[in-house]
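Operator note (shift B, R.M.): manual run for ABC transporter substrate-binding protein requested after the automated queue skipped it. Running by hand, logging everything below so the morning shift can see what happened. Input copied straight from the record, untouched. If output looks odd, do not overwrite the archive copy; leave it for review.
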Amino acid sequence: MRVLKGCMILVLVLIIGMTTACSTNNGKTNSQGSANTADTGGAGNASGAAEKPKELRILYATAEAGSEAILDAVKKYETEFGIKVSVDTFPYNNLQEKVFSELAQKSDYYDLMAIDTPWVPQLIQHLEPLSSYMSATKNPDLLALDDYIAKVFLDTSVFKLDAPNEQPPAMNTISLDAITGAGFEAVGLPIQSNALTVSYRKDLFEDPANQAAFKEQFGRELAVPNTLDEYLDVAKFFTRDTDNDGKIDMYGTTLMAKKHEAGFVDFKSFLSDFGGSIFDANMKPMFNNEQGVKALELYGSWINEYKVTPPGTTTYTWDEVATVFGSGQVAMGMNYHDMQLDPKVNGKTGYFLFPGREDGSGNVRGPHFGSWELSVSKYSNNKQAAYDLAEWLTSPATQEGYIPFKQHVTRLSSYKAAQAIEDETVREFYQVLGESLKVGVGRPRITNYGQVSEAVQVGMNDYLTGRKGAKEALDSAAKQVEAIMEQAGYYK
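Run finished. Output pasted below as returned.
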């Protein structure tokens, strides 16, 4: 699983609430027994840059953020720089709890942490601002800000410290001066990014009989769909009874329609295609407007009206989607990684961008995307060395080395290098992922993201299961979200 899996709201609220009680350390120790220390400042401070540390410690994810690639790179770093680097990896939910706990205790045990983007608004006061380190870098070729996919860097790492909900200034090439000049800071360096992409049965699309039948039925060539309308046509075409027993056994597409984070970001992708968003500029919910209703109705129609998805779609998250696609039951499937067909299927996989929607000015695409960053703990005793390690692990050359591990890299040069991959399927996936990240839409920047997501999930489920109409379901969810946001202090 590569995107947000659970928010554990009560646990996180309790953990973050500990930060007030821990404003002084009083010799308190963390779970590893190391003494907590107070913040000692930014780049160049005595504890951060006085001498080369014997060891640096990283708290990292497992497969969600490509741990295999990172562990391989760490070995090379140790050999080149003579610094031992210990990496502790945890699956998503355990990592989330561990990160929040360590920072709430102001523990100095970990120097670097893998941070998922939706955690940043809650954790931002515990993360070391990095602009001073970046401007003073001794290795500008390693930092190479202009090589990052701009949208990825801005969404993942650029926040206003006292107002993390605000969006950073738009730019096509990252400029540190423009970021800091607008009052924003970089609080990490992007190391891994996911975007909603579509895997498809290329063998079925290339079959001459299918091509002829599709052209006869729809009056155009069978090709990768660019819009949601075209996608639905293709999905309807491939939904069929393949063994002539009177029952549908092949479906056009998958969706992740369970009451789950996967369902929320599915809806968010459709909503973005319709030009909508979760909040307006005043942080008031607006997903229940005309765009939101149309997006949810279209999403639901694929399941309940056109029935182009398998019967169990309302129980699917990213795991089930991968299984169903791999088994050959669907012609197309959406997910956040490259899905593969089981060899028994004897098919061929291809990839394309999540389809958009024509709005009169062009094809609007809004696939959900999210990223992981490496952030320096504000309580590390080795801030400068930790930053140097993060800079090296996210550098162009190091990220290019992640490609054999199928890491979802964050740099333009890495995606360019991926076009030299011999395997056509892998090469195509990297091309599609890179293009998707350039047009992706990230999550809302809020401290109570999990609660908001949950409220929308309930509204979606009410509609998809027929308990409420689309407008009624979204209005109810919006009312709940507004109350949640007010309680969190966004409307003071």
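Quick read of the result: The chain has two domains: 9-193+371-432, 197-367+448-487. Confidence is low (pLDDT under 50) at residues 1-49.
Leaving this for review. - R.M.
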